Amino acid sequence: MGLPVSGGLVDFALGAALIILPQYKIPLAAGAATIALGKRLKERKSVEAKQKGSSSTSETEKIELQWTELTCTITDKKGRSKTLLDGLQGQALPGRLLSIMGPSGSGKTTLLNALAGQVPQTKRMALKGNISINGEPQQSAARRQGYVQQDDIFFSQMTVRETLSMAAALRMPRTSTPEDRSAAVDSLMAKLGLTQSADTIIGNAKTRGLSGGEKKRLSIACELISSPRLLFLDEPTSGLDSFQAEKVMQTLKQLAEEGHTVVCSIHQPRSSIYAMFDDLLLLSEGRLVYAGAADQALKHFEQEGHACPQHYNPADFLADLVSVDHSSSDQERLSRERVGKLQAAPRASVTLHQGSQHNTASQNSAAPEPGRGASLGLQSRLLLRRSWRQIVRDKATNVSRAMSNVSSALIFGSIYWRLGRSQISIQDRMGLLQVAAVNAAMSSLTKTLNVFSVERSIVARERSKGSYGVTPYFLAKLAAESPIGALFPLLFGSIVYPAAGLNQKLSRFATFLGILTLESFTSSSLGLAVGAVAPSPDAAMAIGPGVMVLFIVFGGFYVNSATVPRVLRWVPRASLIQHAFRGLCVNEFQGLEFEQSKAGAKGEAGTGEEALQRLTFQDLTVRSTLAAQARVLAFNYWFTYCVLKARRPRFQQLESPGHA
Ligand SMILES: Nc1ncnc2c1ncn2[C@@H]1O[C@H](COP(=O)(O)OP(=O)(O)OP(=O)(O)O)[C@@H](O)[C@H]1O
C-alpha cells in the first residue's frame, strides 16, 4: 500500500508545510506533510536518543497517532451488513486536544474503541485498517495509552486517595518506592483538583460521595497514574452539569498543553467547550465529514454553502448539519444528499503518507509491561484490604441486612413462639426450619447479586489493564467477605432459636447456627456463579431468584425427593435449601420426645426419629448434610472462578485492509 515517496519530494512537502501551514490548518494538504514531518521528527529524535545512549521515558515521550482505511462492519444473523466506520483516516497529535463529534450513532465510540484497541469482540464483526503510533504498530505503544470510559465505576466505599493509591501500587513500575507512589498520587490529586476531596469516599446511590465531575476527574487521574502520553476519553462530559463539564474539559486542555495527545468523543458541547478543541473530527453515519483544525471548521462549511448563523453554538450547528433527518422520506432524502455532498467535499479526507503505516496484528492493549505492576503478594494484600474496606464501611447495606434479619427473626420467633412438644409442634418445627433455611439463603443471595454484578464490571476493566489476575481477586474477596457474611445468619439464628424454644441442648444450638452459616455461604456462592455468568446485572437479578425458587420447591418440605422425576433429580442434589433443611431437621428432631394426643390417633409420631421417618430423613446425619452442602459450595466457587477466568475482556483484532 505504501507510496514510494522520494526524499526530495518529502523534504519539499515538509518545507512547504513548515513555511505555509501551521499544524493542521489545511488538513487535506497538510495531512501528508504533517505526518511525514512527524515521522521525520521522530526518526531524528530516535537517532539523537540512540546517540546519547538514552531511551525516551514515558514522561517526555510524544505520541502521534495515525490511522487510515479504518473500517468496521457488523453482519446480523440474516446476513445483512452494517458499516459502523467507513474507511476513516486521521491523526491525533501531541500537545493537541482532538474532539470526535457527530450525531448519536455516528460511530464516535466505535472509532475511539478502535483507536484504543478496545472494540469488544463480537462474532460477526470485522475491524480493518492501519493504526500506527509514532510510525510503529499500535501494539507496541498500547501500553502507553490511558482510556477513560463513559461510565465512572469505582468501589463506592474507597476514598479518592485510597483509590488512586491502589491504582498507583497496581500500575506504577515495580521499582517505584512507596514514597514515589505517594508523591505521584499527591501530584495527580493537585493537578486534577481533587486534593480537597482526598479523604471523601466515592459513594453510590445509597451513600453520598463525590460529585459527577469529581468522579470523572478521578477516572482521569486513575488513567494518568501509569503516565500514558496518549489519553482517550469517551464522552467525558456526559451526565455532568455545564460547570462540571467545563472543569473536566479544562483539565483535558491542560493535559494537552503539557504535551499529552488527547482524543475525546463528545456529543454536543457548549460553545465555550467547543472553543477549547484544537482539532475536530466530524462523523456522520460512520463516515468522515470533516477532519482538521476546530477553528477552521465553520469557514470550511461556509465555503460549502452552509454558513453558521451569528451567535449560534458551532457544535449545535455542526450536529444539525451532519444529521440525517428521518422524520419523513423527503426530509431523509434531502438531508442524505446534503451530508453526502459534505462527505465528498475536500475537507472530508486527510491524505496520509502511508509509507510509515504498519498494520496491527494484535492490539489487546494496556497490559502492563514486564516489570510494571504489583507482585502477586502485593496484589493479594491490596485486594484483600479493598474488599474488607468495601464491606465494613458499607454501613447502609450492613444496617439494612442486619435490620432485615432481626425483623424476620422477630416475626418468625413470634409466629412460632415456644413450640412445646405437642403433635402440632412437629409440623410447626418443620415449617420453621424450612423458613429459616429459606431466609438465610435469600438474604445472602440478594446481597451478593446486588454487589457482585456491579463489582464484576470494575474488575473486568481493571483486569483488561493488566492490574491483577482472577486468583488473587477471588481469594481476597472470599477471605474478606466471610466474617461479615457469617454475622447475619448468626444474628437471625440467635433470636429465632430461643424464641421458638427449639432443642434445648447447647450443642444443637451451635450446630443450628453452623448449618445456617454454611448455607448462607453456599447461597452467596450461588449469587457469585449467577453474577459471573449473567450477561448483565439485570439478568443476574432475574436469574438468581428464579433458581432459588426452584431450590425452595425442591427444598425437602414441599416435594419428597424420592418422588422427583428422573430428569429433575439433580435439582434436589443442588438445592442448598434441601441440604440445610435436612441438616436442621436431623439436628432438631433426633432424641426429642413428643406428647401423644389423648385420642392417640393413628400415625402420630412419639419421637423425633419417627418424625424424621415421615420425611424419609431417617438415614441422614448432620455430618452428611453438611458434606453435601460443602460440595455445592465448592462447585459454585469453582464454577465462578472458571467463568471469571474464561470471561477475560476480549477485543476485536485489527485486520489488514486488504484482508478478505
Ligand atoms: N456491537 C454492535 N452491534 C451492532 N451494532 C452496533 C454495535 N456497536 C455499535 N453499533 C452501532 O453502530 C453505530 C455507532 O455506534 P456508536 O456507539 O459508535 O455511536 P456514537 O456516535 O458513539 O453514539 P452515541 O453518541 O449515541 O453514544 C450505532 O448505530 C450502533 O447501534
From TrEMBL:
Entries under InterPro entries matching the protein: AAA+_ATPase (IPR003593), ABC2_TM (IPR013525), ABC_transporter-like_ATP-bd (IPR003439), ABC_transporter-like_CS (IPR017871), ABCG_dom (IPR043926), ABCG_transporters (IPR050352), P-loop_NTPase (IPR027417)
Keyword match Cell membrane: no
Ranges that cross the membrane: 474-497, 509-533, 539-559
Domain ABC transporter: 65-310
Protein location: Membrane
Keywords for the protein's UniProt record, in alphabetical order: ATP-binding, Membrane, Nucleotide-binding, Transmembrane, Transmembrane helix, Transport
GO cellular component: membrane
Compositionally biased residues, Polar residues: 351-366
Taxonomic superkingdom: Eukaryota
Molecular function as annotated in GO: ABC-type transporter activity; ATP binding; ATP hydrolysis activity
UniProt cross-references to Gene3D superfamilies, sorted A to Z: P-loop containing nucleotide triphosphate hydrolases (3.40.50.300)
Membrane topology qualifier: Multi-pass membrane protein
PROSITE patterns, per database record: ABC_TRANSPORTER_1, ABC_TRANSPORTER_2
Region (Disordered): 345-372
Record SMART domains: AAA
Protein name: ABC transporter domain-containing protein
Protein's organism: Symbiochloris irregularis
